[in-house]
């Protein structure tokens, strides 16, 4: 992990919560994720040789309020080439069924190998990527990497590609329940 000294000092002020983050999804995040390795973009570029599963949990764009019904709305989500996109999967309030479906799909994509390298990301200051990393660590994955710079950091050095949500995955509304997984 390579952070400028000032950035590392600023981030040190945000402690890791004991469980999933339930506050605002866009705010300062911790500099750590217990059980995972925090990485920067150059480290990810080197890690790509190991063919990690790249897990993008960035939100889907919302249709603007007041857009006339006759207007075609086709937003494009751009991500790191090869990433799988689970829009909103880093939210703390996912239903148990949605969490189970997410973990089953990750298990499918890793061929059940809990030591397979995984990289979670979203955008900078995004708790969603931190939360999904936390969920994967709790599920027993031992090579979880969190990229706090997210897609924005990636785009500063590399190209992106358009992605569609992972098959069968669509964002769901908040459930209002307390997160348990």
TrEMBL record:
Biased composition (Pro residues): 171-181
Keywords (A to Z) from UniProt: Plasmid
Region of interest (Disordered), ranges: 162-181
Protein name (database record): Rhodanese
Annotated SUPFAM superfamilies: Rhodanese/Cell cycle control phosphatase
Highest taxon, organism lineage: Bacteria
PROSITE patterns: RHODANESE_3
Keyword Secreted tagged: no
Ranges annotated as spanning the membrane: none
